[in-house]
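Throughout our pipeline, every protein is held as a single compact record rather than as scattered files. This encoding replaces a full spatial description with a residue-level series of whole-number codes. The remainder of this section carries one protein's record, kept here as part of the documentation.
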Amino acid sequence: MKTVAGLFKYERDADLAIRALERAGFNENHYGVIAPNSVVQRVDWKEDAKEGTIQTDHKLGTTGGAAVGGLTGLLAGLTALAVPGIGPVLAAGMIAASTGLGATAGGLLGSLTSASINEEEAETYAEAIKRGGILVVVQVEDRFEAEVKNILKEAGALEVEAHRKEWEAAGWTGFDRDVLPDEKYPRL
């Protein structure tokens, strides 16, 4: 099995990736999504459209399940968690099934590394989520790795290493689970 991750700045792009994954035959058992609570909003999509109308007045609470949302209707099944170093997040699919995501000492980093993402990448993804990014993680058989990477790239997945280098140049030394983001915290 291979784990392929795609980081997205916009919910719309993550939604496009999930739609493409589902068209290719993948489902919630293969992929997971994690997004900071502050970026997840209700999106009204036109069937088979590449754009939707974002309703910004539907922010979600920090506990319980989500009742509204885009991400291919996935938000109806999202789990709300408080993740150390990030704060309130919403998770779905195989990521939400990871019981260590919010509660254990390993938190998000432990969940990502247990999904076969190396520590440096896991730290970068955790920081990106902290900065407002949406992470789509897909676990597939080796033969589907290239297809999934292409799907995520075509949907607008960001070049994660470029962001990491930019953050390091600005003084970032790694994901700090003791610092929660606020309105002054840098964004993607």
In short: The radius of gyration is 15 Å. The chain has one domain: 2-169. The longest strand covers residues 2-8.
